[in-house]
Amino acid sequence: MNIWIKRLFIVLSIGGGFCGAIFMTLLFPQADGRITGYVVISAMIAAFSFGIFCGLKFIEDETKGLKLLRWYFGIQIPILSSPIVAYQLSSGAGLNLSWIGSKMSIFWRVGSEMGIWLLRDRPWGLGVNLFALAMFLWTSRIIRQLEKKANHMSQPTSGG
């Protein structure tokens, strides 16, 4: 695999995960003693910590790490908004296209961000993190190529 692709995956997972986890710890004072606030903030820290784990696994074992990274990028794809639950996540970078309420928007960022809202007065809507979708598809393609290469190498050759 190209060294620049490896570096990109490492920066997005470890760098984005670390920044996100640090940002989320800054939210603890906003929980104001509410258990649900602490649980939600802890879940957000766990999501970013999973990104760090994926990046470290990718450094140790490229194939297994890519499979985990695909999951990590996958959980960043949906953007959901409703009065019951709202969710969005981007680690390292994001390009969001969404239709929430009566407003269509496109927004990009470099950095990490996550939001989970429970039982809040949020409008209905859906969106997609196009950057995460592209990374999900890219890691899927690389995994298929690696598996194809591994299967080809494990095929016995006929001798003469």
Distinctive features:
160 residues; alpha+beta; four-stranded antiparallel beta sheet; 4 helices; 6 strands; 54% helix; elongated
Largest sheet: 4 strands, antiparallel
Q: Residue ranges: pLDDT <50 for 5 or more in a row?
A: none
Average pLDDT taken over every residue: 94
Number of helices: 4
Give the strand tally.
Answer: 6
Give the helix/strand class: alpha+beta
| Head-to-tail CA distance between termini | 34 Å
Radius of gyration: 19 Å
Give the strand line-up of the largest sheet: 1-6-3-4
- The shape is elongated
Number of domains: 1
Amount of helix: 40-55%
SSE pattern: HHHEEEEEEH
Strand fraction equals 15-25%
Description:
With 160 residues, this protein is an alpha+beta fold. It has one domain. It has 4 helices and 6 strands; from the N terminus they run αααββββββα. The strands form 2 sheets. Strands 1-6-3-4 form a 4-stranded antiparallel beta sheet. A two-stranded antiparallel ribbon has the order 2-5. Strand 3 (93-100) and strand 4 form a beta hairpin. Helix 1 runs antiparallel to helix 2 (35-60). The chain is elongated. The model has no long low-confidence stretch (mean pLDDT 94).
In short:
The chain has 160 residues and is α+β, with helices and mostly antiparallel strands. The protein is 54% helix and 23% strand.
Write the layout of secondary structure elements.
Blueprint: H1 3-25, H2 35-60, H3 62-74, E1 78-81, E2 85-90, E3 93-100, E4 103-110, E5 113-118, E6 125-129, H4 130-154
Antiparallel strand pairs: 1-6, 2-5, 3-4, 3-6
